[in-house]
Amino acid sequence: MTRTGPGWLDRQRMRMKRALGLDTILCDNCKWNWRSACHRPERQSAAWCPDYHKKGG
After folding, report:
1. For 19, which DSSP code?
2. Number of domains in the chain
3. Which residue blocks in the chain are alpha helix, DSSP H?
4. CA angle (43 as vertex; 47, 27 as ends), nearest 5
5. What is the Cα–Cα distance from 28 to 12, expressed in whole angstroms?
6. How far apart are CA 30 and CA 49, in angstroms?
7. Are residues 6 and 44 in contact, defined by beta-carbon separation less than 8 angstroms?
8. Is 34 helix (H, G, I), strand (E, B) or coil?
9. CA distances from 56 to 16, 29, 35 (A)
10. Whose CA is closest to 47, among 21, 20, 27?
11. Which of 5, 22, 32, 54 is such that its CA lies 20 to 30 A from the CA of 40?
12. Whole-angstrom distance, CA of residue 4 vs CA of residue 7
C-alpha cells in the first residue's frame, strides 16, 4: 500500500515545527535533493515526502 499523504504523527510533527518557528522544508537536507534523483513535483518546497532520507545518515 502506497502512502498518499502524511499520517497523523507526521502532521503533528509539522504543526510542532511550525509552532516553534523551525524550518519545515525537507528538501534542504534530503539526500535526494539533486536534479536527476528527485522527480517529485513538490521538490524544493516539500513539507512531507514519502521518499525523504536525511543527508549523511
Report:
1. H
2. 1
3. 8-20
4. 55
5. 20
6. 10
7. no
8. coil
9. 24, 9, 18
10. 27
11. 22
12. 9
